Amino acid sequence: MRPLLLLLLVLSPLAAAAEGVVDASFRFRHADARKRSEAVHALARLPAGWERTRVASEAFLGTPYVLSPLGEGAGVDPDPRVRFDGVDCLTFVETALALGNAGDADDALAVLDDIRYRDGSAPAFENRLHLMIAQWIPDQIRKGYLEEATARFGETTEVRVAYDEATWKTRRGALRALPWQPELEGAFTLPTLPLARAIAVAGELPEGLVINVVRKARPDRLNRVTHTGLVIVRDGRRYVRHASTGRGEVIDEPIERFLGRHAAMRRWEVEGINLLAVRDNSERVRALRARRTASAGQP
Fold it and tell me: Which residue ranges does the chain devote to CATH 1.10.3670.10?
């Protein structure tokens, strides 16, 4: 038996009855606040980073898909800052990453805020990392939650997005509430594995990757990354664990099917995928905890 699999069987709060917290059927959406807190504490017995993220993400299987379920609790988007009864593709990945690095429930919210907002900023709509290529992806890499990994699996191409005040006026949906930010002016690029190559190597991808679907450029769309999930290996097969709009819940989908579906899309064609490796970010989480403790101690 592989050492990682053995470790998960022995230590995982979702697999080991000896932990006495939750069993393999545990799902966050069915648990009350106390049980969720106990599960987060139990998860902390696993090494931070991918191993903990993988087990945490499993507890979201079957969670209903809810478009944009998180907000700031007030203001432009009054949805709660954290919830466990509904996710979309991005908030699923964000919450799994937060739980993958958190030591307790307070940590989890602080880490989730750190993932979703600009460094050192308060949770506010204008501070949220709305744009995947220009904001969210480079921020997670810089902060240490993720590491660029696309080029490990083949020759990449660079996709490009560019923003100025004129193009910003074409924004849709929730972005309409976001005023123009001068720091967004300019071009931003993202290494992308062409779709044909991604399909060819899909059976060789290791688990522990965030997989981002990158679409072809369209003048009426500001975002080119439209979907995200986690690469999982189970019984020798590769899956994408993601919040599926088609199924309406978090599922494990065979990666060949996942990529094949996207290759068949014609309304807005897919250019390829971007891959990011999940990292152990314990050092940053300790700094966040120390900052939170110091703030709590101030008069």
Answer: 3-127
